[in-house]
Every structure is written in C-alpha cells, then in structure tokens.
Amino acid sequence: MTANECIRNRRSIRKFTDRPVPHELLAGIVETASYAPSWKNTQITRYIAVEGDKKAALASCTDWSGNTRIMESAPMVIAVTLIKGRCGYERDGSFSTPKGDRWQMFDVGAASEAFCLAAYEQGLGTVIMGLFDEKKAAELLELPDDRELAALIAIGYPDESPAAPGRKTVEELLSYSS
After folding, report:
1. What b-and-e string marks burial along 30-43, b requiring 16 or more CB atoms within 10 Å of the CB?
2. What is the mean pLDDT of each run of 10 residues along the chain (178 residues)?
3. Where are the domains of the chain?
4. Hey, which residues does 82 pair with through a beta bridge?
5. In principle, which of 61, 97, 111, 166 could form an S-S bond with 36, CB 3.0–4.6 Å?
C-alpha cells in the first residue's frame, strides 16, 4: 500500500467486530507512529491502551452518546496524552513560538494521524474522538500532573466500510502568494 492509497482510503470507523486487538500489533503501530514529526523532536505524545471494565468506564466519560456507542463497540480505546510544558518551549521555560502551548496539540494531532494510518495499514479501523469529559477521563486514567489528555481513539477490526465523504476542491484548498 502506498502512502497515497493509505491516506485516500482510510476512513473513520465507528462500528467494530468484537475481535481483540493483539498487543504485539498495537506495539508495532505505536512504534511506527513514533516517527511522526514533533517540535524539536520532543516526542511528547504518549498512548494508554484501555480495555475491559476500564474501557466501559471511560465510555461513560463521553459528552456525546454517539461516542459512547463507538467506544462500547470498539475492543480497545487509546487515550492519547501529552507531556505538558515541553513542546514549543525553550529549556528556560519561555516559549519559542508566539503560539505558546498551542503547538503541543499540533504535535499530538500529527502523531494521532500517524497512529491511525499505521493502524489502517495493519487492517484496523480507528476514529479520533474529542467529545469527552476531560477531567473525569483523566481521573479515571490516573494521569500524572505532567500529562494532559488530548484525544481518544477507538481502535479495532472494522465492522463497516463507509464511503468517502466529499472533499473540497484543490482550488478551494490551495492558494499561492509571491
């Protein structure tokens, strides 16, 4: 599969079979995702694989019933976390960029997409979710103070094959400046 095929054919999956995600396969996906670019190679993204009773409890932390159903369907949910205070910062604690701490979400987003593409290549489906009670979920996951929960990714073997949604034209997306 080429990168072009992977990017064009990956879909957000919201229905999964009950087949578990092998831990060895997940480790390989995380290893691949670790090559996503990050600010000054800080590599702040961390993943927590959530299964079983804890996954069921995490599903109750969503702010939208659709996400609850997705998480209940998935055999595993990945809590995507970040190490705070590194990305976009200098060693003295000052910001390297006027974006301040917002750059950390850019890095986590790049890592999350790399994770989803690596999972797709291995025959797994994913969907990135952002509607959840962050405080309640972080407490359930027992995140240390230096971590922040950025997103949840449902992962598993797909039980659906959704069509590609419409895309904007290149003319809408691209402009030139000289």
Report:
1. bebbeebebbeebb
2. 93 96 98 95 96 95 90 97 88 84 93 98 97 95 96 97 95 96
3. 3-160
4. 45, 148
5. 111
